[in-house]
Design goal:
The complex is a heterodimer of chains A (327) and B (288).
Chain A: H1 2-27, H2 30-55, H3 63-80, H4 87-108, H5 113-132, E1 140-141, E2 144-145, E3 159-160, E4 163-167, H6 170-193, H7 195-205, H8 207-212, H9 217-242, H10 252-265, H11 271-289, H12 295-309, H13 314-325
Antiparallel strand pairs in A: 1-2, 3-4
Helix pairs in contact in A: 1-6, 2-6, 2-9, 2-10, 2-11, 3-4, 3-9, 4-9, 6-7, 6-9, 7-9, 10-11, 10-12, 11-12
Chain B: H1 2-31, H2 39-55, H3 60-82, H4 91-113, E1 126-129, E2 132-135, H5 136-158, H6 160-170, H7 172-177, H8 182-208, H9 214-229, H10 233-254, H11 257-274
Antiparallel strand pairs in B: 1-2
Classes of the chains: A mainly alpha (327), B mainly alpha (288).
Chain lengths: 327, 288
């Protein structure tokens, strides 16, 4: 029963993604399409943290680090390789390996969950400072200058696989982004229903009990953390395809935003963070048009109020309200 | 000889800065177990209140040593009342709420003062050491940090207030049963931590320059110092500041400032891998 419901949800997500990917490019302007791709990339980033934090119980303050690593890995590889299709595995592999390495230090070092937040935050800051200081000719990887504060504006977009001459249009990249989001959502649903996913959730509920039952706690946490890193890297790659990579991808503002999206959407849900990301992105964009108000002020206040007023997040709160309304 | 002395002062100054920016956090986080991610913004507010006071014509020393800690201490009381009080014992929620506070403060200060560097020049001129010269303010900073550290230690160790605070943090239920108003103790401890942060922010302002985002440059360093220090807040924070500050200065001396900081944070993470309970989890266990 449960399994069939999960399968249904996964299929529904894929269908919804298909409809969005087919319909939106027909009605939106080019600029709106690029913007929509950014929204989808952000939703994917939120989904990666929703998996790691909501189900793995790992509060990662540095999800933006993997997002940025994915973007930079893609940009550097795409500038060096003849066919940008080959940059995709690199853009996914680098952040995943980084997440695995960081996860090894944290989980095998038995760092407690609160310290984990601070360590991930610190690593993000190190990367931000480091990338920011890479201005100048001596900082280049192959044909790709790292560009310091300016980032890499010349990032080539994805091309048709096997045909480097034909770059994908923004519409096609939007379709790919939606497909990635829907695919990852379905994958998350399936992962969480698998034996592995159940063990991960059990560890979140009670780490000691899971360990006493004979499960390898550290390995499971490491694996879910690495999967989250991979998804964040994918989001970074999509972002690099519609904007361009710059050190702000590693910034505290991004890391903070992701946490706010997941928190507002609902920790422990998958759909909530996606909705939260879309809503708050729209809110931030709207706040950015107000001349007198700094968007940081609004985001910060939203987070404080969300923690105090709806600690469970939008999706669970709405679900409870709806259930109470129904007889 | 002069080079050694000058480098030594440089290292001491690095250690003192690290200790200074971490001390307020050591009280709030090390003692109260409240993860205050708005700590960097408390430093920033201290710096801004000092600047505003100086612009209003108040003497520089009064502005730095009296006005800044008072303002930020009062702000701490308000924050404790409105936010922190509702979240004691919910560490992750506290962390998120204070992060929201941090973003909001950065936004608000940017709106009011603009995203520009303000500041006042360091007083006290320069001091000659053989062929080298060092800033007199750097020496003052070292001395001020030591005095502040001694003062916090003395308050906690010898005064009834310090005893009550330590007792409440150790076992709030028992303290309440003995008639201690624990809510007020928590509020005052948080305010004291905020005040120390405000003082630190004002003291480093002449060296660092003041921008709304200056807190983000310090938050990671101070957290990593307090965490590396471990359970005993004063001994731990001091020894961690000593170790990490030296690594940072040495790294900066040999390579670049950025790599120096990267090296320091890498050492801290490695240290946590070896000593998950922090330095005072293994050494100086019985100290304060």
């Amino acid at each position: 029963m449960e399994d069939r419901r999960t399968l249904l949800q996964a299929v529904l997500a894929l269908l919804a993604g298909g409809v969005a990917a087919w319909w939106l490019p027909q009605v939106l302007e080019l600029f709106a399409i690029i913007n929509a791709t950014v929204y989808v990339a952000m939703a994917l980033l939120a989904l990666s943290l929703a998996l790691v934090w909501g189900f793995g119980g790992i509060l990662c303050f540095g999800q933006a680090a993997f997002f940025g690593l994915g973007g930079y890995a893609y940009a550097v590889a795409a500038l060096n390789l003849p066919d940008t299709t080959y940059a995709i595995p690199i853009a996914l592999g680098v952040p995943m390996l980084a997440a695995a390495a960081l996860g090894y230090v944290m989980f095998y070092g038995k760092v407690s969950d609160v310290y984990m937040g601070v360590i991930t935050l610190t690593v993000t800051l190190i990367l931000f400072n480091f990338i920011n200081s890479t201005a100048g000719e001596e900082w280049r990887i192959g044909a790709a200058p790292l560009g310091g504060f300016n980032g890499i504006p010349s990032t080539p977009p994805l091309n048709m696989p096997g045909d480097p001459g034909t770059a994908l249009t923004p519409e096609q990249i939007f379709v790919i982004a939606v497909a990635c989001l829907a695919g990852c959502y379905a994958a998350c649903k399936l992962i969480l229903r698998s034996h592995f996913g159940r063990v991960v959730t059990a560890i979140r509920e009670n780490e000691l009990r899971a360990a006493l039952l004979g499960y390898n706690v550290r390995l499971h946490k490491l694996a879910i953390f690495a999967i989250g890193g991979l998804m964040a890297g994918l989001a970074g790659m999509l972002f690099a395809n519609c904007v361009f990579v710059s050190p702000t991808m590693f910034s505290l503002a991004y890391s903070g935003q992701v946490i706010i999206w997941v928190m507002v959407g609902g920790v422990g849900t998958l759909l909530g963070p996606i909705i939260g990301a879309m809503l708050l992105q729209a809110l931030t964009a709207w706040a950015g048009t107000l001349p007198e108000v700094n968007p940081n002020l609004i985001l910060g206040l939203v987070l404080v109020v969300a923690v105090l007023a709806i600690p469970r997040g939008l999706q669970p709160t709405m679900a409870t309200l709806l259930r109470r309304r129904a007889p | 000889m002069d080079l050694v002395l000058a480098t030594g002062i440089q290292a001491l100054s690095g250690i003192a800065t690290l200790l200074l920016i971490s001390l307020g956090l050591a009280i709030v986080f090390g003692m109260m177990r409240v993860i205050n991610l708005a700590h960097g913004e408390f430093l920033m507010l201290g710096a801004y209140s000092a600047i505003l006071a100086v612009q209003a014509g108040i003497n520089l020393w009064v502005a730095m040593l009296v006005v800044a800690p008072l303002c930020v201490g009062l702000f701490g009381v308000v924050v404790e009342r409105l936010v922190i009080r509702r979240l004691y014992g919910r560490m992750v929620d506290t962390m998120l709420a204070t992060w929201g506070l941090s973003l909001a403060l950065i936004g608000a200060v940017t709106m009011i003062f603009g995203n520009t560097v303000a500041g006042f020049s360091a007083p006290l001129g320069s001091v000659q050491i053989g062929a080298y010269s060092t800033s007199g303010y750097g020496l003052f900073l070292i001395a001020a940090t030591m005095v502040l550290l001694a003062a916090v230690w003395a308050v906690l160790r010898f005064t009834p207030a310090g005893l009550i605070a330590r007792g409440t943090m150790q076992n709030a239920g028992m303290a309440a049963a003995l008639g201690v108003p624990t809510e007020r103790v928590y509020a005052l401890s948080f305010a004291a931590g905020a005040a120390v942060s405000g003082l630190a922010g004002a003291l480093i302002a002449p060296m660092s320059g003041v921008v709304p985002t200056m807190g983000t440059a310090y938050i990671a360093r101070s957290f990593i110092t307090v965490i590396t220090g471990g359970a005993a807040m004063l001994a731990g924070t001091s020894s961690a500041a000593g170790l990490l500050g030296s690594v940072n200065t040495l790294g900066t001396f040999v390579t670049t400032p950025v790599l120096g900081e990267v090296l320091m944070l890498a050492v801290a993470i490695l240290l946590l891998r070896l000593l998950p309970q922090g330095i005072t989890g293994r050494f100086f266990r019985r100290s304060l």
